[in-house]
Design goal:
The structure holds four protein chains of four kinds. By secondary structure, chain B is of the alpha/beta class. Chain B has five helices and four strands; from the N terminus they run βαβαβαβαα. In chain B, strand 1, helix 1 and strand 2 form a beta-alpha-beta unit. In chain B, helix 1 crosses helix 4. Chain C has two domains: 199 residues, NADH:ubiquinone oxidoreductase-like, 20kDa subunit (Rossmann fold, 3-Layer(aba) Sandwich); 105 residues, no CATH class. The chains are: A alpha/beta, B alpha/beta, C alpha/beta, D alpha/beta. The interface between B and C is large, with 42 and 50 residues.
Chain lengths: 669, 155, 325, 584
């Protein structure tokens, strides 16, 4: 491909590409994001290709493998264009129907349409599905539409026009001013104003300057950055070029996890294409501005998502953080001014430049502008990638977009901001308990909100509520989650990921974990709560980097909202959610129908009873593995306080009746 | 009368000449055939001197210098050590026995050795016999006689 | 005033010296004009008797070239001496013996044996040799007799001046002629007897354009073994160049052409023996103190005496090789 | 460097901008405890014990680490607030729960008021302060140790946990380790060198020995870490006068002088090749110089005469003429040995109760009072045996009397003897420096067969040399004792002075001249002159002789192929005339 040497040539190319787009052709936009790959989209793609070939439809019907469409729960997904028909849960067997009916005859294959559980109707178009309806997809605007390995697709969708605009019509200062006015804040978690950061870096005296893209997305359950890099890498590249131009940098790096092979692949292809087209290199779009981007792959250390550790890792050193009393924008990579932003932030930059700061600032809340991408996971119906405007409530995200908790379980909490973030209460708590806690001084009066479901989601609100925006992971928990155990789990994750350089993080996390583990085993003492708070404060105060500084958040937020659960563990040696193995006992109630599914999965053979009979758990053999609880479809297995399990079991024996008798009795009634 | 060789010696001022002096003061007996010419250093000995001596009737020439490394002028004797072989080679090609020219190292303390060297050299030359260069000087009388015999006119 | 008389004679030599006189080009006309040439067998028809007829000292200047190799050469040397006011040894043969002088490396007997018997082209089954005196019915035939030892002109007669070179360079001849003309015309005093004319007091190096540095020689080489650096002294490159031990005046023609000086202008003033001097000089700069290595380096000098004495053997200190029967 | 004003615990101080709070506090005498700070490596801020409260101009207070928090205008530092103290205490308690109760921790605990750490103590010896890793990297530059693993698994080790070639065995890590967790170990069976051989302390930077001139320290590049790795330079940073430079290189300085006194001394004969004496092979066989060193109060034994095992010897044999008066080494007498050997005997008698045996060939006590000293020694009970020591052998481990046996022939008693001793002192010969020839060449003088410089005349010119203006002093001319050396030195000085006072040099009439009219500039003579008296004039293209340098050897005259050089008084024509004269 010939390099593009002016914005006009870029426009010409775009016009040519658009003109070549035949409206009579059909495009099948098949999601090939990691989620759909996991749902076996590859055989689907193969079947499509085969069918198109067999039918002789090549050149008329095009299969396009796109990035993540977001609705991972329903994968594999495909959108048939130009009609915009949204098919979900496609299997290879469905291809024949799609080609024969939809493509050849314009008829919709109803069984592949999404069925709305609320209205019980099939929905034809994506934009009508509740999951998409409430979203505002800006960063993800082209995901699902373009082939991430094709720069022409990106250009045809308007890509690099922001870059052309910035390079030809805007001074670097203007760009920074625009970003500042847009009030874009860093999407990596801290929420630092991007424009201000750029300005400091631009004003830093030393040369050269570096721009860095942080794609070391390490939070469990988060995959926003990955999806962007996989589905639309050029948007990040474009943002970085604009940023570099504004800052005065000629060298950029993307630090991406090695565990993201597809992202690395698509990014590398995109960089090569951009270079070939002259969008990276010594003279970008004929402007004389030189910039290029290198890719550095991280080894998977969580701490390398921390800016100083990331830079140390980039330099080839051990990825350990250093004190940030002198900011990295002044002394960063190789001690030179370095501007680091995360993937999503960079992807927002072309939007701001193209549509203007005012447009961007019109979205979101006072303090937080634009949209935020969240990875919605956990106990939620519509697992997937969602992009919502700032200020949307948790309720809208969880209920309207997420579709609520599966089964008949109740919402309990949502964890935002990754392992260092906080757990927010979203269930309706027993007002009596809350009041008694308030009276006892265990929680401050303001905290006694019954639910945070209506909390507007933006940087400041989340921080105030004891959590943080983080990079956008959102893990939903239902009634079966024990909050003490959740805290223990996250602290354990952080122990494994702490670099061990500074004492409080290394030793403090271990101490926290020791205490939490003791509590989950029923060996907690009342003063443990104080100790947890004390260590947490010291960690916040004295840790070297934010990994340690925010590490107590899971503990403090659960203490804040679920103090009663801690008390139950410590005082009553009881796990209210029935999760903590040492405290919980399993028993089978009279609801048992005797299908003996539980006996089949029990790894220790503790469950006996025989077919169509009451199943009984031998408490001496039970290891509390929870396997029986998971398989019982009749909710006949209950998790109770350990010492009560035998009693429950005894009661069941006395009251249990065979199913037949029960139905007869019911019939009689 | 037996043949008494006519010998010329070039002795360096610092070692060999002093050595010869020592030989004298020590009453060491050695043949009187050697006629000594003092030079400051064996490095001063020009092969021209040796040829000149031979051309003027010497039957042998002895050059003495300080032992290697002991030269008063640091390395003059090394230069001599390099010139003498060329001279000897030249003499050989000119039909003169190279043994007639000898280089010896004699230090200031080696009076006895000086005596030995002179004795040995004298004996050696004695055994070689007189040098008697052929037709060295131009014999005008003989040439004139030849002319007369020829009749003196070739025209 | 009558014209001064000029004689030129050619004894044992190749004749190149006389050609060199002709090489003075137009100057030769000037010579013919200025002088009354009374004897120049090579160019004009004269008989020895013409010279004998002259009064002693009647010839103003005689340029005598060629070594004294035979009784005839000797006779003519004596004759020219007697008839000339100024006798000049003209050219290397007369001055130092030159190439004919190389006969001194062997004996007359050996030369005749080779020439009349042993040379491959000779057929002489009766072993006939030249006879100096041979009686025939018409009378007695006499041939000049070759000498066993070649002599230089100064060795056999008194010589006033020497003009060296093999041959003397025409430029130098012109200069000498000009000087002679100047003396004769303007009554200038003659240079002291024995003066070397038509040459420099300094050695050939004076005219050599090559760059010279301090010398250290580790090995000698022959011209065909190396491609000499055109800028640097040949001696420093291991080639035996006789330049330092040779009188200058030739214009360093050979050296400029990349060929080491062969020494035709003879030893500079103050040097008795050109070859021994060269041996001394080279010995001084051999870069070794190990006797064996010294021997090895010296052995690398090709044809030691032939190189050192190519033009000056009869004039050298030893004058000839000792040939033992 | 711009200055800033700040306060620490309310006390104002002005410091360089960007310097660290810890330094400011130190300047004020306010102690801030720390476990990982060392002023010659970059602050690491890992122990978090040095935390303080910093209040900036905007009134924002936060906890920072004093070791790396840069001073800025108007900041207020509080080092002992309850929040700070609680954090320090808790951090230390957490550290202690993992580490053994080592002084560095328990002392600090006491200072912070921790009576009993709440989680008790552990067993780990390493506090992960990183001092070792950083000193190895930043100062030593060897990067031979580092942290492995992460989090609570973190530990210090060599690469791949094996012995590393990167380690230069400098020991900086062990020296800096506050807990003694790092030790230096003998990794191979290296020979232990007798400590007496070196003249001074064995440090990389030291005064070479007490009497050194100039009496100033110098860096030994063989030991200095900087020259091995490019790092360190700590010495330079502590020198208040900034005297230390690691960038200095050897340089030659030219000094113009009119006269030179050579006093280059001698070198000690190495007796190792003479296997029969066991030097270097048997313990406690030492040379006289080593014995002398041992006797020096500044020596490593502090002047005590001790065996290698630190015990006092019971019998010592002193063997004369080791390498002197020996056809296999040096035929000459070293002149000083007899007398110092007697002195040794006297010292041994004075300091120990050991038996002393002197084994001599001839006792040469020729100086003033020397013979008297010899008699005194005899009276002191020294055993004096005429007969050269023939052999020193090991007596075997179990021998009662001593560990060494000296064999000799007692020529006075006419019997063969075997003497058991603990220590043997070899009176080694004085020999000419191995570079004596080079020195001689440089100064245009000569060396004799033994390597000693040759004087102008053994009787009439024992101080001067054959080169005018060069004088000899001391052993470089021949072995001599101190009085003789002083005498000769004084003589040499006087000679030199007389030349200097006159200010001019009288020249010999004999020298070489080059006839400018004849020299063609072939340069064959240039390198012939050992005195570099011949120079080449690049403009005139001729060579010329500097008569002041010329010594009239005439080598150049012989070597001039053009006959341009005339050796005055030994000119060619003069020698030709001589030849003709003697042969006529």
């Amino acid at each position: 491909m010939r390099p593009i040497v002016s914005p006009k040539e870029l426009n010409d190319l775009r016009d040519r590409l658009r003109a070549a787009h035949d409206p009579n052709h059909t495009w099948v936009q098949l999601c090939a994001g990691t989620g759909c790959l996991a749902c076996n989209c590859e055989p689907v793609a193969a079947a499509f290709r085969q069918k198109i070939h067999d039918e002789g439809l090549e050149g008329v019907v095009h299969l396009k493998l796109t990035g993540c469409h977001g609705f991972c729960e329903r994968g594999p997904l495909a959108v048939i264009q130009p009609q915009g028909i949204f098919y979900q849960r496609i299997s290879p067997d469905d291809i024949e129907a799609i080609i024969d009916q939809t493509i050849k005859h314009g008829k919709v294959v109803t069984k592949l349409l999404y069925r709305d559980p609320a209205s019980k109707t099939r929905i034809e178009k994506a934009e009508d599905i509740p999951f998409y309806k409430k979203q505002v997809r800006l960063v993800l605007r082209s995901n699902g539409h373009i082939d991430p390995t094709s720069i022409e697709d990106y250009i045809a969708f308007g890509g690099y026009s922001a870059l052309a605009k910035a390079l030809t019509t805007m001074e670097p200062e203007r760009i920074i001013d625009e970003i500042k006015r847009s009030r874009l804040r860093g999407r990596g978690g801290g929420g630092f104003p991007t424009g201000a950061k750029w300005e400091t870096c631009r004003n830093a005296k030393e040369e050269p300057k570096y721009v860095i893209c942080n794609a070391d997305e390490g939070d469990p359950g988060a995959f926003m950055d990955r999806s962007v890099l996989e589905g639309n890498p050029h948007s990040v590249i474009e943002g970085m070029i604009i940023g570099a131009y504004a800052i005065g940098s000629h060298e950029g790096y993307v630090y991406v996890r090695h565990e993201y092979p597809l992202a690395v692949k698509h990014l590398t292809i995109a960089l090569d294409q951009a270079r070939e087209l002259g969008l990276l290199g010594p003279n970008i779009l004929g402007s004389g501005f030189a910039f290029d981007i290198g890719v550095s792959r991280g080894g998977g250390a969580f701490v390398c998502g921390e800016s100083t550790a990331l830079m140390a890792s980039l330099e080839g050193k051990v990825g350990e953080p250093r004190a940030k009393y002198v900011h990295t924008v002044e002394h960063g990579l190789w001690d030179k001014p370095s501007n680091l932003n995360n993937v999503e932030t960079w992807a927002n930059v072309p939007l701001v430049i193209e549509h203007g700061a005012d447009w961007f600032a019109s979205i979101g809340t006072e303090g937080s502008k634009g949209t935020k991408v969240f990875a919605l996971t956990g106990k939620i119906c519509n697992t997937g990638l969602v992009e919502v405007p700032m200020g949307i409530t948790l309720r809208e995200i969880l209920h309207d977009i997420g579709g609520g908790v599966p089964g008949k379980k109740k919402f309990k909490a949502v964890q935002t901001g990754g392992p260092s973030g906080g757990t927010l209460i979203v269930e309706t708590r027993d007002a009596k308990i809350m009041r008694s806690m308030e009276d006892a001084g265990e929680i401050s009066p303001g905290d006694a909100v019954t639910s945070l479901l209506d909390l507007p989601v933006d940087f400041d609100e989340l921080t105030q509520a004891g959590s943080m925006m983080g990079s956008g992971g959102m893990i939903v928990m239902d009634q079966d989650s024990c909050m003490v155990d959740v805290a223990r789990y996250f602290i354990h994750f952080l122990i494994e990921e702490s670099c061990g350089k500074c004492l409080p993080c290394r030793e403090g996390l271990r101490k926290l974990h020791e205490i939490l583990e003791r509590i989950t085993k029923g060996q907690g003492a009342p003063e443990d709560i104080l100790t947890l708070q004390e260590i947490s404060e010291t960690l916040i105060d004295t840790s070297l980097c934010q990994l340690g500084g925010s590490a107590p958040n899971p503990v403090l937020s659960t203490l804040r909202y679920f103090r009663d659960e801690y008390d139950a563990h410590i005082r009553d040696k009881r796990c209210p959610a029935g999760v903590c193995r040492e405290l919980v006992g399993y028993a089978i109630t009279e609801d048992c129908v005797g299908d003996a599914k539980c006996a089949k999965v029990c790894p220790t053979g503790a469950i006996t009873g025989g077919p169509r009979n009451l199943q009984v758990i031998d408490q001496s053999k039970c290891i509390q593995c929870d396997a029986c609880y998971q398989v019982c479809t009749f909710n006949a297995i209950v998790r109770v306080k350990r010492d009560r399990a035998a009693d429950v079991q005894t009661t069941a024996r006395q009251t249990w009746k065979p199913v037949k008798e029960r139905t007869q009795a019911e019939a009689r009634a | 009368m037996s043949f008494e060789p006519n010998l010329v010696g070039f002795l360096c001022n610092w070692c060999s000449y002093t050595g010869a002096d020592l030989a004298g003061t020590a009453r060491i007996k050695y043949p009187p055939n050697l006629k000594v010419i003092r030079v400051m250093c064996s490095g001063r000995v020009d092969p021209n001197f040796i040829l000149e001596a031979l051309a003027h009737g010497a039957d042998g020439v002895l050059v003495c210098g300080c032992h290697p490394g002991d030269c008063h002028y640091v390395e003059g004797n090394y230069k001599c050590q390099r010139r003498l072989p060329i001279t000897r080679m030249l003499l050989g090609e000119m039909g003169i026995d190279p043994r007639r020219v000898r280089l010896e190292w004699v230090s200031a303390s080696e009076g006895v050795r000086f005596g030995q060297v002179v004795s040995e050299f004298t004996e050696e030359i004695r055994s070689l016999g007189p040098l008697a260069l052929q037709e060295w000087a131009f014999d005008a009388a003989a040439a004139d006689a030849q002319l007369a015999h020829q009749g003196g006119d070739h025209a | 005033m009558p014209k001064p008389k000029l004689g030129l004679y050619w004894a044992a030599s190749c004749g190149g010296c006389e050609i060199a006189v002709l090489d003075t080009e137009l100057k030769v006309l000037e010579i013919a004009d200025f002088f009354d040439i009374v004897f120049w067998p090579c160019a004009m028809d004269f008989k020895y008797d013409d010279v004998r007829a002259l009064a002693d000292g009647e010839i103003t200047l005689t340029l005598f070239n060629g070594a004294i190799r035979s009784s005839e050469n000797y006779e003519m040397a004596k004759l020219m001496r007697a008839k000339s006011t100024v006798l000049c040894a003209f050219g290397s043969c007369a001055a130092d013996g030159c190439i004919p002088g190389l006969a001194n490396f062997t004996s007359l007997e050996a030369i005749e044996r080779y020439v009349y018997d042993e040379s491959p082209s000779t057929v002489n089954p009766e072993h006939i040799r030249p006879q100096p005196v041979w009686d025939v019915p018409e009378g007695t035939l006499r041939l000049p007799q070759l000498w066993n030892t070649v002599r230089t002109l100064p060795q056999v007669v008194d010589v006033d001046y020497i003009i060296p070179g093999c041959p003397p360079q025409p430029d130098q001849i012109k200069a000498v002629v000009d000087a002679v003309v100047d003396i004769l015309k303007n009554g200038k005093p003659l240079p002291p007897k024995g003066t070397v004319l038509g040459a420099d007091p300094r050695a050939c190096c004076e005219e050599c354009p090559r760059k010279r540095d301090v010398k250290k020689i580790r090995a000698f080489v022959r011209p065909h073994e190396v491609v000499p650096d055109p800028e640097i002294c040949l001696l420093e490159q291991g080639l035996i160049c006789m330049g330092p031990a040779t009188r200058g005046g030739c214009g360093a023609k050979c050296v400029k052409a990349g060929v080491p000086c062969r020494g035709c202008y003879g030893p500079p003033a103050g040097v008795h023996d050109q070859g021994a001097k060269m041996a001394s000089a080279l010995g001084g700069v051999i870069d070794s103190t190990d006797p064996e290595e010294i021997e090895r380096i010296i052995a690398g000098i090709p044809d030691l005496v032939g190189t050192f004495y190519r033009f000056s053997l009869p004039a050298s200190t030893l004058r000839r090789r000792q040939v033992r029967p | 460097m711009p200055k800033v004003n700040m306060t620490v615990d309310g006390r104002p101080i002005t410091v360089d901008e960007g310097s660290y709070v810890l330094q400011a506090a130190e300047a004020l005498g306010i102690e801030i405890p720390t476990l990982c700070f060392f002023k010659y490596v970059k602050p690491y801020a890992a122990c978090r014990i040095c935390v303080v409260e910093a209040k900036n101009k905007r009134g924002r207070t936060r906890i920072v680490t004093a070791c790396n928090y840069p001073a800025s205008e108007g900041i207020e530092i509080l080092t002992r607030t309850p929040r700070v103290m609680a954090a320090r205490k808790l951090n230390l308690e957490m550290l202690m729960s993992r580490c053994a109760p080592m002084p560095v921790l328990t002392d600090l605990a006491r200072k912070l008021g921790i009576d009993q750490p709440r989680w008790g103590t552990g067993t780990d010896m390493c506090i992960l302060c990183g001092l070792c890793v950083r000193v190895c990297d930043e100062i030593v530059g060897a990067q031979a140790i580092g942290f492995a693993s992460r989090g609570i698994e973190r530990f210090v080790t060599t690469p791949f946990e094996v012995d590393s070639d990167a380690c230069i065995l400098c020991g900086a890590c062990a020296a800096l380790c506050p807990t003694g967790h790092i030790r230096m170990e003998e990794a191979s069976d290296r020979e232990v060198v007798h400590s007496e051989i070196t003249l001074g302390p064995n440090a990389a930077i030291s005064v070479p020995f007490r009497q050194a001139v100039p009496n100033a320290p110098r860096i030994d590049p063989e030991f200095c870490v900087h020259f091995r790795t490019g790092g360190c330079k700590v010495c330079a940073s502590v020198c208040p006068k900034e005297c230390i430079s690691h960038d200095d290189v050897e340089r030659f300085e030219e000094v113009e002088v009119g006269t030179v006194v050579l006093a280059t001394g001698y070198q000690d004969f190495d007796p190792t090749p003479f296997k029969q004496y066991g030097y270097g092979r048997l313990p406690n066989v030492i040379t006289s110089m080593e014995f002398e060193r041992m006797n020096n109060a500044a020596g490593s034994t502090g002047g005590k005469i001790l065996l290698e095992n630190g015990k006092e010897p019971r019998a010592i044999a002193i063997l004369h003429c080791i390498g002197s008066r020996d056809e296999n080494a040096h035929p000459y007498c070293s002149r000083v040995c007899c007398m110092y050997a007697l002195k040794f005997a006297h010292l041994v008698k004075e300091k120990t109760s050991a038996e002393v045996y002197q084994l001599y060939i001839d006792l040469r006590a020729f100086g003033k009072g020397y013979e008297e000293f010899f008699h005194r020694i005899l009276e002191e009970g020294v055993n004096v045996i005429r007969g050269k020591g023939a052999e020193v052998v090991s007596a075997g481990r179990d021998c009662q009397e001593g560990s060494l046996i000296v064999r000799c022939e007692d020529t006075l008693a006419a019997k063969f003897r075997e003497i058991p001793v603990d220590m043997v002192v070899l009176c080694t010969a004085l020999e000419a420096n191995r570079d004596a020839k080079d020195v001689a060449r440089r100064f245009g003088i000569s060396v004799g067969a033994d390597g000693w410089f040759i004087e102008r005349h053994p009787k009439l010119g024992p101080v001067s040399t054959t080169t005018d203006g060069i004088f000899l002093a001391g052993v470089c001319q021949s072995p001599k004792d101190i009085p003789d050396t002083v005498a000769q030195g004084s003589g040499a000085a006087a000679h030199a002075m007389s030349l200097m006072i006159r200010g001019e040099v009288e020249m010999d009439g004999a020298y070489a001249v080059i006839d400018d009219e004849v020299c063609s500039g072939c340069r064959l003579c240039n390198d012939l002159c050992p005195y570099s008296a011949i120079g080449f004039d690049e403009t005139k293209k001729t060579s010329s002789v500097n008569p002041a340098l010329c010594k009239a050897c005439g080598t150049c005259a012989a070597g001039c192929p053009s006959g341009a050089i005339r050796a005055l008084h030994f000119a060619d024509d003069q020698i030709y005339a001589e030849i003709e004269g003697i042969l006529s």
